[in-house]
Structures are given as structure tokens and as C-alpha cells.
Structure of Dimethyl sulfoxide reductase:
Amino acid sequence: MAKRILHVVTNVSHYADPHHLTGLWLSELTHAWHVFAEHGFEQHLVSPKGGVSPLEPRSLKWPLADASVKQWLTDPRSQELLRTTARPEDINPMEYDAIYFTGGHGVMWDFPDDAGLQHITRDIYERGGIVSSVCHGYCGLLNTTLSDGTLLVAGRKLTGYAWPEEVLAGVAKDVPYNAEQAMKDRGALYEKALLPFVSNVVVDGRLVTGQNPGSAKATARKVAALLQAGA
């Protein structure tokens, strides 16, 4: 029976300034999707509110928009997937072997406090499944608690978009909080690469996290390897 992956995407289309657009960083989805597809995994999309997942404009421009991004932008079926994402209440966590939180700055607003996503994540993890994220996707893990009341990330090694990367991207003054520091404040053992924007993946048991957009393929490969090994 094919393994099943649940991708989490944002519904948020802008920063606090409605003229400053954001959304899903598309390659963080497409790169992982193609890796999982190569392994024959079944894949679905969920978002906090369901329906449309807007796209981060910068992720659609050269040189960030590679062949996988262009394929999704021109493929009607892929576009339909991004228009019709499921709601958390539509999802049965028992049906999934792994959850993968994608990024883009929009997730900083709608991922951290979504009770439905937290329930799905907790259920998948406590049944022996894999919890994974890339870039800002780790904001979806900030406030997820386990059944014993402890934070999922407390005492766990992980990574995600680093504060120096926010500064270099020119949006440090626009984001609602410092995600790197927020993770440290929750007791996470945050790690980052020596250089910004290089691929970096941290694996701590069944928690797999990638630092930035360039880490999506490597993150997905680690998840796939764990699934094939029966993690």
C-alpha cells in the first residue's frame, strides 16, 4: 500500500500591509512533490481554511522559478489542487504516514495557532508517522503539543528559515515575529547552516526539517528514506 503524504500550505496572501504580497513559496511544494511522486507516494494538500492557496510572487520569478515551478503553473490539474485544498476538519490523520509543512511568509500568520493542523500533526506523530517542514513551514510546529501536554519541538533538534536570512531577504521589518527566536524560546535545539541560503536538513528521529527553499528536495528525500525504512 502506497505511503500517504499530507502537504500543508498557507491561505495568507499578504503581509500586514495588504499591498505587500506573499503566499506559498511554490518550489517548496513542487520540489518535495516530485521527490515523493518518484517514490510512488500518494499526496494531498490541506490549508487552515481550505480552498485557494495564494502564491508568493517572488517564488514565481527567475531564477527562483525552476522547471518544476513552471510545470505546476502551466498544468491545469496542479492549479486545481492549489485552488481546492482541503480543510483540516476534512482530513483523517489516520490515513497519512507523514505531514510536510511548506513555507512562504504567509504561514507565519495562519500556521502557528491552527488547532486543526495541530491535531493532525499530533496524531500522525504519536502513531509513529513523520512530521516535517521546510523554511517557514516550521512555524506550524511552534505551538503543537503532544498528548502529555509537552511541546512537540521542546528539546528537539530542528531548523527553519534563519533570522539572518530574513534580514538578507529584506523583510525583517515586515515579519510578525522572529521565527528562529520563537523556536528557541520554546526549548527547541535550533540549528542553522554556517552560510545563509544553502541547503540544510536536520533529522531528529521522526522530525525532519529543512532550513530554506533550497532545502526542500533534501528534506523530502530524508522523509522518503525514513518512510521506506519503516520509520
Observations:
- The chain has one domain: 4-228.
- Residues 4-228 form a domain with the Rossmann fold fold (CATH 3.40.50.880).
- The chain is about 30% helix and 15% strand.
